[in-house]
């Protein structure tokens, strides 16, 4: 009998630990999975254009990808700006159906050569904190909703 009580106490202690540290445990798993995905998946069609326009945003030119807020692409372009502070782009303004981002991404790929995928990788790594911040907000929101619940969940 004492053995089963001790076993139950250890299970309860383990569950208490998991529940108390659930956000930390989930965020570690989430970060590991994101890091694996960053390495395994090749750049999507507009990712190089986003990186190039983020680089130009850091240099004060905001015409490329002006349909989206610049903060995320600027943060993703910080490693590129640190290593290559003086890349040369022939930038033109977007007019009508012409979008300058595609031309900028081609220029970026030509100038970076073999380092192209490295900077896509580094830019993706810089964006992981945004995912963790969003996950934390959702975690707190769900915890708040759960604390006001008046009925048992089964």
Question: Can you walk me through this structure?
Answer:
By secondary structure, the protein is mainly alpha-helical. The chain folds into 2 domains: 1-41; 43-130, no CATH class. Helix content is 69%, strand content 0%. The chain contains 7 helices and no strands. The protein has helices at 2-20, 22-40, 47-58, 71-76, 78-83, 100-112, 116-147. Helix 2 packs antiparallel against helix 7. It is elongated, with a radius of gyration of 23 Å. It starts with a helix and ends in a 7-residue tail after the last helix.
Entry keywords:
7 helices; 0% strand; 69% helix; elongated; 154 residues; 2 domains; mainly alpha
Task: Sum this structure up briefly.
By secondary structure, the chain is mainly α. The chain has helices at 2-20, 22-40, 47-58, 71-76, 78-83, 100-112, 116-147.
Query: Which parts are unreliable, with pLDDT below 50 for 5 consecutive residues or more?
Result: none
Strand-residue fraction? under 5%
Which geometry do the CA atoms define? elongated
SSE-based structural type? mainly alpha
Distance between the termini: 30 Å
What sequence of helices (H) and strands (E) makes up the elements?
Answer: HHHHHHH
Work out the count of structural domains.
2
Oligomerization status of the protein chains? single chain
Radius of gyration: 23 Å
Mean pLDDT: 83
Can you give the helix content as a percent range?
A: 55-70%
What order do the helices and strands come in, and which of them pair?
Layout: H1 2-20, H2 22-40, H3 47-58, H4 71-76, H5 78-83, H6 100-112, H7 116-147
């Amino acid at each position: 009998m004492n053995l089963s009580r001790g076993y139950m106490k250890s299970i309860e202690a383990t569950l208490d630990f998991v529940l108390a540290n659930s956000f930390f445990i989930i965020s570690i798993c989430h970060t590991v999975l994101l890091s694996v995905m960053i390495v395994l998946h090749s750049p999507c069609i507009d990712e190089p254009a986003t990186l190039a326009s983020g680089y130009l945003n850091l240099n004060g030119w905001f015409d490329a990808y002006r349909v989206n807020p610049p903060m995320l692409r600027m943060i993703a372009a910080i490693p590129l700006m640190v290593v290559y502070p003086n890349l040369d782009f022939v930038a033109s303004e977007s007019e009508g159906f012409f979008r300058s981002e595609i031309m900028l991404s081609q220029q970026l790929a030509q100038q970076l050569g073999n380092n192209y995928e490295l900077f896509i990788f580094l830019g993706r790594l810089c964006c992981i904190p945004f995912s963790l911040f969003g996950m934390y907000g959702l975690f707190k929101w769900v915890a708040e909703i759960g604390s006001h619940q008046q009925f048992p969940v089964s």
